[in-house]
Amino acid sequence: MPARSSRRPKAAPPRGPSRGGYLDLTLRPLYCLAFLLPLLILYELGILLAYPRFTHEQAPEVMAKVLLSWFMSFFGGTGYYLPGLFVVAVLLAWHLIRRDPWRIDRRVLLGMTGESVLLALPMLVFHAVLIARVMLAGAAWADSVLLSMSAGIYEELVFRLLLISLLTFLLSDVAGLKRNPAAGAAVVLSSVIFAAHHCKGFGGIEPFIWSRFVFRSAAGLYLAGVFVLRGFGIAVGCHTVYDIIVVSMD
Q: How many domains does the structure of the chain reveal?
């Protein structure tokens, strides 16, 4: 009779590239959704309370949300609240594809809040150096705050999550560039497009001013870095905190 082996069977390797530490959890779509959902709800409630009989022309909007609504209209999707539902749907679909656990640690959400505030500080310093205004002068503070929320959510969705992913795919899988150079080029291109879309002739309403264009390009590059390294949720939080502080100081 063969002797029993004293060796214990090896444990199966854990699934996924990371083991669920804070840095990994903040990148997961379910955490991004849990972090952003209060902001989305607060924004929609703010619009509803400030503009109880609003039309699409009356309510404050950012061009990124308008572009998203325009794109969805090609597929038959219409409705003022559809872009917000689209954000939720994208993150839920991403979560299901990843097959992450349906668990949320509230301490991680608190950490994401603090990290968003800290990461907004370098942008505030750069803003002070170039004296570049983000919101239009003369706008009501409440409207500016609503626009800040909208910009944080939808500009990060369009110019970071969607555009960087699309450009990386086109440059890598279609044009044949290596993955890292393609991703780097996508980050730079998305930042320049982000800056240009604020200007007249590219969908925006501001006149072209070099200092503002340089600032927005640098801000887009910075936010793209936050998105790549720290995830969609913190990129939205950083962008929103920065915008709200700026319009509150102006």
A: 1
